[in-house]
Amino acid sequence: MYGQLTSEAPLPPAATVLLPAKAWSSNYTARPRDEVALGLRCLSEADALTCEAEAAKEATAGGRSAEEAPERFNEALMVWAVASALCDPNDARKAYFEFGDADVRRAFPPETLKHLFHELELAHLASSPVRPEASEEDLLDLADRLTDPEPFARLTPARAARLRRLLRFCLDELSEP
Asked: What CATH number is attached to the domain comprising 116?
């Protein structure tokens, strides 16, 4: 799934995430005792297509009902995306886990998996050549919208939570020296 570059110099990951030991599954046999740095590389188009194809297979496997399939697809997509993105924190060419999705399923509880998926999403947003940067006018518009007493009232709870996470990320970035 991963292409190898010819350069000998380490390739830095798009992001690095520090996970405390408590973020790992309690029954994971290789659970670390201390905080661990994990690298995240951005997914290529080929990686993303592979993740979607594998998630689609899982969503329909085992005779799942039509109601179960979308939820299972989303869960599997997170697993495959995180498994594809996790890498050595010092070299994005080196996969973090030997067995990808199987290791991710064993190593992380659902909350940690969601956290890593959101960190991957932020890494993609931060480096995307197709997402425009906010202009001065955009920033003024955002400030106006956020002064509304209920800026998230018209959104679904999931969309509001996603936007709140992104805004928290913005606050964190603005707070760093």
From this structure: 3.30.2220
Same domain, 81 and 26: yes
Residue 171, in any domain of the structure: yes
Q: Are 116 and 99 in contact (CB under 8 A)?
A: no
Identify which of 162, 83, 78 has the alpha carbon closest to the alpha carbon of residue 122. 162
Q: Given this model, what pLDDT does residue 116 score? A: 96
What is the span of the domain harbouring residue 151?
A: 132-177
Q: Are residues 89 and 127 in the same domain?
A: yes
Q: pLDDT at residue 3 above 60?
A: no
Residue by residue, DSSP assigns 86-120 as: EEETTEEEEES-TTHHHHHHHH--HHHHHHHHHHH
State if pTM tops 0.85. no
Backbone angles phi, psi at 68, to 5 degrees: -80, -30
Q: How open is the CA angle 97-98-104, to the nearest 5 degrees?
A: 45
